[in-house]
Amino acid sequence: MPPRRRDRRRPRDPSPPPSDARAPPSASGIRLTRLAPAVVLVLVLAALGFSGRLSRSPPHPQTLQTTARSVYERGLVKRDISSWEILTEHTRVSEKRSQHQFPNPVLAYVTPWNSKGYDMALQFVKQLGEALHSISSKSSNRHLELIYVIPAPRMQELSNQDFGPEDLLQLADSLDGFSLMTYDFSGPQNPGPSAPLKWVQHSLTTLLSAKGSSPSRNHSRMIFLGINFYGNDFLLSRGSGGGAITGRDFVHLLEKYKPSLKWDEKSLEHFFIYSHEGVRHAVFFPTLMSLSVRLDEARNWGTGLSIWEIGQGLDFFFDVL
Description:
By secondary structure, this protein is of the alpha/beta class. It has six helices and twelve strands. Helix 4 links the parallel strand 5 and strand 6. Helix 4 packs parallel to helix 6. One of its GO terms (molecular function) is oligosaccharide binding. It comes from Panicum virgatum.
């Protein structure tokens, strides 16, 4: 069954923290809007590589600490991570900020969009990309690029995708990249992991299998693989429900319930179960291990990354980038 799509509403906390707790600011200050049927245009004013120009989200000044050792050296990238380890270590970041694990570009973007229909949008994005390249070629000091945000292919009905391999092939010569939304696989009506690895692999395989594509053209380098820094807190009883949570919410839940994190071998994600006022919840939130697995996948394919959103995660997430 294809994954259900849901609007990105403001994350909710099922068990509110103290009133003086501060939500982590968004690094970009900009949100993408999910439009029907599936696509949003993204005009990239600066497609930034992660070479020191994409900074960490502003931390809580009283809690952020630096350490000489990375999360790998501290033994935190593992399946059997505990709540205590996350609570103790999530504000400690490596002081080796110039050393990055992931060599490919990480995306920063703003979002204008066209809502007059999918066919018109394809033609529009093609013309817009050509126009931007024309402007860039006339001024070496102004580099404009166009990144097209695309949905992940459905697991079924390959011939009826919102955006498929032939669409990618049609636009590849006119654009600079494609931001692939490989997150939100699950929702309140079907609780589960955010981005099962097999689904991510299926999405990349499907999009990069267009017939007639030139063997010399490596389209994988045009893909920015979507990585979520937020998570979900789903209700498992009293009907369905729940929604997105940020790193702040996640930390609060760990502090309050001291849950035991489980590693799902099928999705390669961590989750835990807790009960609040007689209602059982399932929480899926990225960890250093789940992020590392997906970064390895992106590295193997030669893709970049598109992170949603930087300010919603934990500080030590950046040590794996």
